[in-house]
């Protein structure tokens, strides 16, 4: 299976490097992506939109033969969702890694501090304790060294969706910061921020207790969970 790995904010394709061995050992073809504006710290980011990120992955899907699995971490989950909306007949499964689908018109996160045309990785105090779980000082140092500013519009642009067939695509949610039981309670209770997840027709929840960046804190376990999800 062709597996497309979409990183979250501030990260490029290399952020998946400790996760991919499990996928490759299982015989899958891995395509970790670096999204527009994330090529380097010096890359141009002015004017890069959320749609630009979505279209970059759509083009990759179109270049591949057969079905694909999309894996999106954090803000990359919204990109995976939008790609499944534009190519629902090509996507065998979407896996959200500490992420979930957004409702049409929602932004990924328009509260992050913007500097000019970009969003640098904020100070750690911006993130809650749950997000930072298991991210020790060495992880944080390496993360900050590799972090690339996110194009500002990617965080604030409304998510554009239009094909209801996206809700038929099998979905796996790997929960890290919150246990799956909490997420299910929000869905059952009609919480507005999970209304799109509640509309998905085939969803499975898998727990991986750690912080928001399991590709750094528990990469081997994340790789195995991805293999399991693809096998299903």
TrEMBL record:
Keyword set includes Hydrolase: yes
Entry protein name: Alpha/beta fold hydrolase
Keywords tagged on the record: Hydrolase
Domain AB hydrolase-1: 3-222
InterPro entries, per database record: AB_hydrolase_1 (IPR000073), AB_hydrolase_fold (IPR029058), Sec-Metab_Biosynth_Hydrolase (IPR052897)
SUPFAM superfamilies the record matches: alpha/beta-Hydrolases (SSF53474)
Domain of life: Bacteria
Keyword Hydrolase: yes
GO function term, MF aspect, one: hydrolase activity
Highest classification ranks of the organism: Bacteria, Bacillati, Actinomycetota, Actinomycetes, Micrococcales
């Amino acid at each position: 299976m062709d597996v497309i790995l979409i990183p979250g904010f501030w990260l490029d394709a290399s952020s998946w490097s400790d996760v991919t061995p499990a996928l490759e050992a299982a015989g899958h073809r891995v395509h970790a992506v670096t999204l527009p504006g994330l090529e380097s710290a010096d890359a141009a980011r002015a004017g890069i939109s959320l749609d630009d990120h979505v279209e970059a992955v759509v083009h990759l899907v179109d270049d591949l033969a057969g079905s694909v699995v999309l894996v999106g971490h954090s803000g990359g989950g919204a990109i995976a969702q939008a790609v499944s909306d534009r190519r629902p007949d090509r996507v065998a499964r979407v896996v959200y890694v500490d992420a979930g689908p957004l409702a049409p018109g929602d932004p990924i996160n328009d509260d992050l501090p913007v500097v000019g045309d970009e969003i640098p990785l904020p100070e750690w105090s911006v993130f809650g304790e749950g997000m930072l779980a298991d991210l020790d000082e060495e992880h944080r140092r390496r993360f900050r060294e590799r972090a690339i500013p996110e194009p500002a519009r990617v965080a604030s642009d409304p998510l554009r969706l239009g094909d209801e067939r996206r809700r038929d695509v099998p979905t796996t949610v790997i929960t890290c910061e919150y246990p799956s039981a909490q997420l299910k309670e929000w869905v059952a209770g009609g919480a507005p921020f999970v209304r799109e997840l509640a509309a998905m027709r085939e969803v499975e929840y898998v727990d991986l207790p750690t912080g928001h960046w399991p590709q750094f804190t528990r990469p081997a376990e994340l790789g195995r969970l991805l293999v399991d999800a693809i096998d299903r």
